[in-house]
């Protein structure tokens, strides 16, 4: 299980949403399956945890023009075989981002009060790494590498294609809100799940895997 509660989530373009939340990062609780398995979910290798600046990496090549707002319907990640529907995620009574229900292991969610993937700004997708019945939608998120693609199918019939430029692991007690959720002048995407080691005594992950990607094509 994951619980996302950053100090400031990316607001929807042209509609500023001020969020004052108590705890930064993602508090990761596990439903029990982790303690019975022998191998943890993959974590990014050291080379993948050194983010490149997207502007510098792209050089002078212009990216595709931002898309208008349109609800995302599915997320597809070819390297890990993810092909999952997306549900809307809002804030719970504690002003934390809610999570997809653990009854569906192949379900992710997007922050509905942020920008939609493909629009200008930083869009956010999150999902479970595992549940009490086994691996979940983002179990292999840490295996992504620079240059991999993430495809987000939108309600308007277009697919926003994002290219990964960094994969990082952050401690749950020292989560860099601005680095992860900060505003962007181009269409960016963050995909998050639990990771960074596991505390068997408390049955919880110690941190978060975060994938940084920018829109590189429209299909």
From TrEMBL:
<keyword id="KW-0378">Hydrolase</keyword>
<feature type="region of interest" description="Disordered">
    <location>
        <begin position="37"/>
        <end position="78"/>
    </location>
</feature>
<dbReference type="InterPro" id="IPR005754">
    <property type="entry name" value="Sortase"/>
</dbReference>
<dbReference type="InterPro" id="IPR042001">
    <property type="entry name" value="Sortase_F"/>
</dbReference>
<dbReference type="Pfam" id="PF04203">
    <property type="entry name" value="Sortase"/>
</dbReference>
<protein>
    <submittedName>
        <fullName>Class F sortase</fullName>
    </submittedName>
</protein>
<keyword id="KW-0614">Plasmid</keyword>
<dbReference type="InterPro" id="IPR023365">
    <property type="entry name" value="Sortase_dom-sf"/>
</dbReference>
């Amino acid at each position: 299980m994951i619980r996302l509660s950053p100090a400031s989530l990316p607001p929807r373009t042209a509609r500023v949403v001020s969020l004052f939340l108590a705890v930064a990062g993602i508090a990761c609780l596990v439903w029990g399956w982790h303690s019975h398995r022998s191998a943890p979910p993959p974590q990014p290798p050291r080379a993948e945890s050194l983010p490149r600046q997207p502007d510098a990496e792209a050089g002078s090549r212009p990216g595709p023009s931002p898309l208008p707002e349109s609800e995302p319907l599915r997320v597809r990640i070819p390297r890990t075989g993810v092909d999952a529907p997306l549900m809307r995620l809002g804030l719970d009574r504690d002003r934390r981002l809610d999570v997809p229900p653990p009854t569906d292991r192949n379900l992710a969610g997007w922050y509905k009060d942020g920008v939609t993937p493909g629009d200008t700004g930083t869009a956010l997708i999150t999902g479970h790494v595992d549940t009490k019945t086994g691996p979940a939608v983002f179990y292999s998120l840490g295996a992504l590498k620079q240059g991999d693609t993430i495809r987000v199918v939108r309600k308007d019939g277009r697919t926003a294609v994002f290219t990964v430029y960094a994969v990082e692991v952050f401690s749950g007690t020292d989560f860099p809100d601005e680095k992860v959720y900060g505003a962007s002048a181009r269409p960016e995407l963050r995909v998050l799940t639990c990771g960074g080691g596991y505390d068997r005594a408390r049955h919880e992950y110690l941190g978060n895997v975060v994938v940084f990607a920018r829109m590189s094509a429209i299909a």
